[in-house]
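Lecture 7 notes: from sequence to structure.

We start with a single chain of 306 residues. Read the sequence below before looking at the structure.
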Amino acid sequence: MESDEVLNKEKDFKSGFITVLGQPNVGKSTLINYLIGQKIAITTPKKQTTRNKLQCILTRDDAQLIFIDTPGVHRPKDKMSEYMVDTAYKALKKVELIYFMVDAQKGITELERKINNQLSGLETPKIIVLNKIDLVSKNKLKNLIESCQRLGDYDEIIPVSAEKGQNTEALIEKSIEFLPSGPKYYPEDMVTDQIEQFIITELIREKIMYLTREEVPHSVALEVVQMGKRENQDLIDVNVNIYVERDSQKGIIIGKGGKRLKEIGRRAREDIEALLGSQIYLDLWVKVRKNWRDKEDALKMLGYRG
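Now the structure, written as tokens:
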């Protein structure tokens, strides 16, 4: 009798992969962080914050949802941005559900229409997620929903506020309806498939994006050179290289008397210690690797090519 109950429970359990797609700054990472209840994907007000595909996992008693955070779809200017757009569209394959996120403040732009064209031929269930509804009037939202209905064959249109968590539970419940019965792909306590080193570099890059301006944040790549626990101490040493494309950018990141680099380290250390559950000694070095965004060998070395 007990084994029958276990079998029925397994049959009722649903699981699947959900790609979250949209142009830069629509709130993809903010939404995913809210849904899983933990900060894994970095968020900044700057465009093109997310560079890699990132899987984040929400496990409930009845389902496991694996969200795939993707780089914002934009018009590529170099090999790096070509890689980012390619990564976003490749994430549409072999998934159970697609979220097409739209910024309710901006509405349907030319870029949304291009993304819509990429989605139109797919048989995968699709939900338009209208984000930032806390920032628009009810009348504007009503008109936007009507515009979305004219876009194409979408299974649902769900308005949310990722920042406030508004209507996110409804989004989860509706998403589970589209998922098939399936296994628990990841352990219950796992919230991402990425290794700690990747998340560490992302957290540092987030601080750089907040503390620098114009082209500097997008010219930055990071590499964990060494990471290990000190003997007989509750302390982890983390050595990280920060790569930029020009000497002037190196000077901007270091700042006068090293002030900006210290502030980047201070802010990043807080998040990394929360991630690792331990004190860390963070050692940051800034190095120049000229025009790395347009060089295949550099992109491979920094993990942006297979």
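Residues 254 and 262 are 8 Å apart (CA to CA). Keep this in mind for problem set 3.
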